[in-house]
Specification:
- The chain folds into 3 domains: 4-53, Uridine Diphospho-n-acetylenolpyruvylglucosamine Reductase, domain 2 (2-Layer Sandwich), CATH 3.30.43; 58-174, 2-Layer Sandwich (Uridine Diphospho-n-acetylenolpyruvylglucosamine Reductase, domain 3), CATH 3.30.465; 180-290, Enolase-like, domain 1, CATH 3.30.390.
- Helix 9 packs antiparallel against helix 10 (245-255).
- Strand 12 (198-207) and strand 13 (210-219) form a beta hairpin.
- The strands form 4 sheets. Strands 4-5-10-6-7 form a 5-stranded antiparallel sheet.
- With 302 residues, the chain is an alpha+beta fold.
- 32% of the residues lie in helices and 26% in strands.
Length: 302
């Protein structure tokens, strides 16, 4: 089976977006290719006229901290993310999520940009980035623009930008400050490489024994990647020792849109997992924030 007609490997971001803009026929951007090539071979994606390989674009392969931001190129592999000292310090939920993607062979080549651009609501890298309040860099011939990550998703596998003119070049999120920490957990089938039954990430800022700020993401919790804005608002200002969890779970359960999947889990089972995952990510994130073990007192999840 012929996957593409022509192939280019640009040496810069400018060359990459120019190749997209000047292409005749259909195009696809590729870096690791662990999703795209399989989709084409299995008939879920049509063969393309031009494949634009951005794996060697320097701007898309950097991890750096600058002016209070952490910058992460879209072509950075999951293996590099889980071993990078800066990300292990500043973005633990992202590191933990990317460490569960596929197996070692997949993580060696699969990239964070591919995980996001695939636009699946349960993408482990995407869920981690959402908890970090990440912005995405979209590049075209007209230049680069930054947008909130949540805004680029239109539905399963669909994005709000024109893939034939713009590409995901990178991401940025604020450097972690005092009292801030994050965590990621997921439940999956025993095979070890399946898409999550349910995953969740939390970022917290704790000061003087209370939640000063909270961010929560869950997947799959609807047709698009999800942030629990109502639950976050409820938790802000709550004392760590007060009885907040039961109501927080109730709010989150109303916010999410869980469904039954024939190959993974029922809607009812996912609703049973939701409080378990929320408790895990909050306890772990708070423990990291305050530097000591923290446990939420929960009498009953029902």
């Amino acid at each position: 089976m012929q996957i593409f007609q022509d192939y280019v490997s640009p040496g810069s971001l400018e060359e990459a977006v120019r190749a997209l803009a000047e292409a005749q026929g259909t195009t696809s951007v590729i870096s690791g290719g662990t999703d795209l090539l399989l989709d084409i071979r299995q008939g879920r994606h049509k063969p393309v006229d031009l494949m634009v390989d951005v794996s060697e674009v320097p701007e898309m392969n950097q991890v750096k901290e600058e002016d209070g931001w952490i910058y992460l190129g879209a072509s950075v592999t999951h293996k590099r993310i889980i071993t990078d000292p800066l990300l292990k310090e500043q973005a633990q939920c992202l590191v933990e999520g990317c460490g569960l993607i596929g197996g070692p062979q997949v993580r060696n080549v699969a990239t964070i940009g591919g995980n996001v651009a695939h636009a699946l609501p349960a993408g482990d890298g995407t869920v981690g980035l959402l908890a970090l309040d990440t912005e995405v860099q979209l590049a075209s011939l007209e230049g680069s623009r930054w947008a909130p990550l949540l805004e680029i998703f239109a539905g399963p596998g669909r994005v709000t930008f024109d893939r034939s003119q713009e590409l995901v070049a990178g991401f940025r999120f604020r450097s972690q400050g005092e009292g801030e920490a994050s965590s990621f957990h997921r439940v999956m089938r025993p095979q070890g490489v399946a898409i999550a039954i349910l995953n969740a990430a939390a970022w917290v800022k704790v000061q003087e024994g209370e939640f000063k700020d909270v961010r929560i993401s869950v997947g799959p919790a609807g047709p698009k990647p999800f942030r629990g804005f109502q639950t976050e608002t409820f938790l802000q200002g709550k004392d760590l020792e007060e009885d907040f969890f039961t109501e927080a779970v109730s709010i989150l359960a109303e916010e999410v849109s869980l469904r039954t999947s024939a190959h993974r889990a029922t809607k009812a089972y996912r609703h049973q997992l939701l409080p378990v995952l929320l408790q895990q990510v909050l306890e772990t994130a708070v423990s990291r924030s305050v530097g000591r073990p923290y446990q939420i007192e929960v009498a009953n999840h029902d």
